[in-house]
Amino acid sequence: MEQSNTTPREARRRAWPMEKHRVEDWIGRIYTSICVVFLIAVIISIVYFVTSKGVATFAVNGVSLKEFFLGTNWNPQADTPSFGALPFITGSFMVTLLAALIASPLSISAALFMTEIVPSFGKRILQPAIELLSGIPSVVYGFIGLSVIVPFLREHVGGQGIGIGAGALVLSIMILPTITSVAADALASLPRGLREASYALGATRWQTIYRVVLPTVMPALLTGIVLGMARAFGEALAVQMVIGNSPHIPTSLLESASTLTSVITLGMGNTAMGSIQNNALWSMALVLMLMTFVFVLIIRLLERRNRL
Amino acid sequence: MSRKLPILLFTLTMILVLAACGSNTGTTGSGSTTGTTGEASTGTELSGSVLAVGSTALQPLVDQVAQKFMADSKYANVSVQVQGGGSGTGLTQVSEGQANIGNSDVFAEEKLDADKAKELVDHQVAVVAIATVANEAAGVTNLTKQQLVDIFTGKVKNWKDVGGKDQAIVIVNRPSSSGTRATYEKFALGQKVEDLAGSIQEDSSGTVKKLVTETPGAIGYLALSYLDDSLKAIQYDGVDASVENVESGKYPVWAYEHMYTKGEPDAATKALLDYMLTDEVQNGDVKDLGYISISGMQVKRDVEGKITK
After folding, report:
1. Pick among A79, A270, A284 to test the B interface (most B CBs inside 10 A)
2. Could you tell me which residue ranges the PBP domain spans (chain B) (predicted)?
């Protein structure tokens, strides 16, 4: 018969549709490819949409880049509208940096405590507890900020209570779990030999942590901090509830201010799509998106350094 | 084959995505007409779906009335969906045909381009009055229009200059795009005011109420329905912010709640709009939720703010 004459290769090709594991292979391959392509399409669509809308402010409505990025006067509804977004940009950076300054020492200390000082208790109880923090919805943080932190600041520090200070405090609590988790994971993955060698040389625990452990995991710690900052930079709801939303650069931490996210959430629903006010908000969304790319880029660079 | 496959799939997906984008307005446009065609084919039985989007200030009323409307056996085949999003969103979506009804706190002319606004038909369903409110520590019960202007433009910074206690003024304003703020500026202050450094801006009435109640020396403005014993309204030029004074036209700080349709509404949408204006709704739900009934108004106001008896 013919079959006996065919080469093994041909036999395999003929039998191909019958072989189950091959079919499974192909189904899996096609399915994952579709998912990846879908994801890429979504990302490209979002980037394209935000960019085209954001650029329209300058290209169609004729707002100058200089006015947008350096102007301090935000008054889109006035008869001669002005679109200075500098107060929002500085506001975003101020709350983000302050939140990172408050949260980083706390988180890194907590991570050290969990991994170096009482590893068993830390692994079993502290880590889940801190991870729980990241599951709390941001509106809850905002509400706590408005009901507890703002009145506290108003009574004990002065001013309106509302402002950059309150915003940074709320955000620092929100990014605490992010930084702590990354730091704790990095610390836990250090090879034991490193610490043992240090102890063998007669170093105390503090000396080991300070001179050996921390310098080794520094890039990972920085990654955690940048991740936290990225979250803080993009957070809208909680910040909007406690920051006061005045479109001015504040002169004190206890004075009403705005961030890019807060002005977008306040204005997006109230402005008509395609109007210049709405486009200006999209431009700010574009700035936010570009900043997120920068954060991701920094994280990538840090990771590369970590590997070396 | 294995190398070309992802590229092929990628192009396919992109085509699908783009096609979905393009047909978006088309399909929803035809969706709004299903109400009419459905109604025509079945004769008396009304069917279809109505999507109302927009103002969060009007949303609770439309939501509640829509529930009652759908529970009514006459309209059992009509489904109504109510969404928030703000006046600007509502007007945009109804103008683009994505929604059947656009809920708005302001006249469409104030948000949209003139030619787009012209296509929309206004249905006024209720009135909302806005009252000036101040923190207890202010110590005032009446403010004149000029005093309010001085406060909101930053000329007066302490309550003692307008007859109150020695207490710094903290302004709790709305964002500049807010419909409530537009109404307040137009009818209470008579002019647009800039955002002052240090002033607070909140969009939600709940937050405004909380901040004015708690912050010493704070001043803000709220719809009448938000007032209670913890926060009392301040008289405007000696006139109480009350329902009777709004209806008689004595108290000027009020605005219509609009439900816009693009052109004349289809049958299902029209049924809902008519239902909104029935006595049952106007004297029941409208009043229960703190709005002022449109049927009780003894004065009318047009887009320019001209009042007619």
Report:
1. A270
2. 41-280
The residues with which A83 forms a beta bridge, in sequence order, are A74
Residue pairs between chains A and B whose CB atoms are closer than 8 Å:
127
The string of DSSP codes covering B49-109 is EEEEEE-TTTHHHHHHHHHHHHHSGGGTEEEEEEEEE-HHHHHHHHHTTS-SEEEESS-GG
Report the alpha-carbon distance of residue A104 to residue A111 in Å, rounded.
10
Q: Which residue type is seen at A94? A: M
Amino acid A119 reads: P
| A34 to chain B, closest Cα gap in Å | 7
B175 and A151: CB-CB below 8 Å? no
Q: Evaluate if pTM is beyond 0.95.
A: no
C-alpha angle with apex B162: B158 to B165, nearest 5 degrees? 60
Per-residue pLDDT tens for A178-192?
999 999 999 988 888
- What is the C-alpha to C-alpha distance for residues A198 and B49, in angstroms, rounded to an integer? 73
Provide ipTM, 2 decimals: 0.76
* Position B24 pLDDT exceeds 50: no
Terminal alpha carbon distance of chain B: 78
Domains of chain B and CATH, by start: 47-127+255-304 (3.40.190.10), 128-248 (3.40.190.10)
Burial of B109 (0-12, 13-18, 19+ CB in 10 A): middle
Residue of A40, A247, A255 with shortest CB distance to B10: A40
What's the mean pLDDT in B112-121?
A: 88
The distance from CA A116 to its chain's CA centroid, rounded to whole angstroms, is 27
